[in-house]
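Exercise 3.2. Students should predict the tertiary structure of the chain below and write it as structure tokens, then compare their answer with the key that follows.

Predict this chain's 3D structure.
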Amino acid sequence: MTTPADPATPASGNRWRAALGRCRHRFPLSVRPGGATGRVGVGSAGSSGGARGPVAVVPAVLLVAVQILYPLTTGVARDRVTVAVVLLSAATALTHAARTRGVRWAAGVLVIVSGVGLLAEMVGTATGFPFGCYDYASGRIGPSVAGVPLVVALAWTGGLYPVWIVAGQLYSRTVTRVTMTAAGAVGWDLFLDPQMVADGQWTWCSPWPGLPGLPEIPLTNYLGWFAVGLVMAGLLAAWDRISPKHGEAPAESGTTGQPFTPDAEPDTAVAPAAGHDRTEPSTAHAIEQPVPTRHRPGAVPVAAVRSGDVAVPVAVFLWTWFGSALAHAVFLGLPVSAVYGVVGLGVLGIPLVRALSARRITLWPVRHGTM
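Answer key:
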């Protein structure tokens, strides 16, 4: 009968340390944001719940609830619902951006998307470029500047942000992500424009033809949306590169705060063979140390918003895709735009559903624990 080894003996202690090393390599370990020394937890690095917190979820839930009211209202009540939808969509986007990347990055998103959107709308209503000739209704959805309701600028942020996040989850190359974000923006407008035109929020005066079944909206509108979407997404990609990553350690600290990956080398050596007289740190002390990671030469940095932080914008995207199709087809009497919108947003929606089905995208961050 074999007696179990005493953990206090050198040989058994080495085996314990070797087993710990294998465990650390098998299960990713992460450090506190900024690389500070402290107890290491299992899960996504630098996450304190991310988009899972109620602060991020509440505006999204309210957004869905208010959007359900839209087809049930008319006149002034519908105008108020329209404004509420825009404000809640922008709040949902900016809250998620702040929770996952920090307030500074969220402010940059607002300045880029709403700023470019407002500028494009002001130029568009004044010159007909890049969308075509159109005019907004006066005094229906709040104050205006140069003929453009200010709330429209926030609508760009609320609508484009989920598209940007979904494109980033599906495509790692910047050029592809930017292009697909612009394409997704056009898909969103295939729902938005017919709905707002039917409600009289703006009218078109362009001589250019439109899509079959939607003759009142010129084809130049969709080309303009694609061009403006490219500019917005390109600036967002640049902002991603130059802005600090929320919860990451400075590059010179030697730690990144990112979890181990299967192709990364363990940063701790396996204990020496039994009988070696070198003093080893205790297991408890080893767990308390920060865990720096090693990246392969030439490796591309991890995306700013990673899988595991994206439940809210993904849910908003899917709700916009399916919910708008249902509303247009059943409640608003716009079956043609329902079909166009499903196809247009489907350029991202179909790959997204496939990725979710294959579990290539994790919506919620892994909860931290202690070892």
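Discussion points: The longest strand covers residues 214-218. Residues 75-101 form the longest helix (27 residues).
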